[in-house]
Amino acid sequence: MKALGTSELKGYVRYISTQTSYSLADRTPELELVPLCLDQGVGIIPYFPLAGGILTGKYNGEQAVPSGSRADTDPSFNRFLLEHNIHLGRQVSEKAAEHGCSPSVLSLAWLLARPAVSTVIVGATRTEQLEHNLQSLDLKLTSDMMAELDQLSDSFRHREPFATYRLSE
Q1: CB-based contact 106:99 (threshold 8 Å)
Q2: Is residue 5 classed exposed, middle or buried when 0-12, 13-18 and 19+ CB atoms within 10 A define those classes?
């Protein structure tokens, strides 16, 4: 907000977007950043939209970490494989199955339907992942579906932001 105010005061080019961690597993931007962006006409470009793969269904707590996954190639990622995150991933997988899509497509469609979100940064490691995730553009969520996802992820509005570790490094 200070940068926007300074830009207005000095006649500088103003910010038109901001990047932040935002997903069903990190709804902390809704507390202050989303209202500010809506008020000031700034778009949000979320990163970690699938919470490092937690919202894809690949980490269910019952099976070993998939070979080649982020948790396999970067052991420090395991700090995110907490029960509340895994539980959310399971719930999203169940909702996705109910609606005939994958958890990643459902999670991305939810995020793309959020106020102020302009686009989403998805870190696909294979062409197939990117092509699959593009299906989220065609999934139109009903208000009931949005409400279901909002309800099951509501506690993530008040948890520590997913990318807090980036602030301390």
Answers
A1: yes
A2: exposed
Sketch the domain layout of the chain as residue ranges: 2-159
CA–CA separation, 133 vs 106, rounded Å? Answer: 9
Q: At what angle do helices 103-112 and 83-98 cross, to 10 degrees?
A: 90
Measured CA to CA, the distance from residue 4 to residue 75 in angstroms comes to 39
Residues 6+ apart with CB under 8 A from 114: 22, 34, 44
Whole-model pTM? Answer: 0.89
Residue 144 CA to residue 55 CA, distance in Å, equals: 20
- Taking the C-alpha atoms of residue 45 and residue 30, their distance in angstroms, rounded to an integer, is 13
Residue 90 has a pLDDT of 94
Q: Return d(Cα 8, Cα 115) in angstroms, integer.
A: 24
Average pLDDT of 41-54? 94
91-141: per-residue pLDDT in tens?
999 999 999 999 999 999 999 999 999 999 988 878 998 999 999 999 999
CATH class of 2-159: alpha beta
Q: Which of 36, 32, 48, 59 is nearest to 163 (CA)?
A: 48
Q: Report residue 17 as tokens.
A: 């977007």
DSSP type of residue 50: T
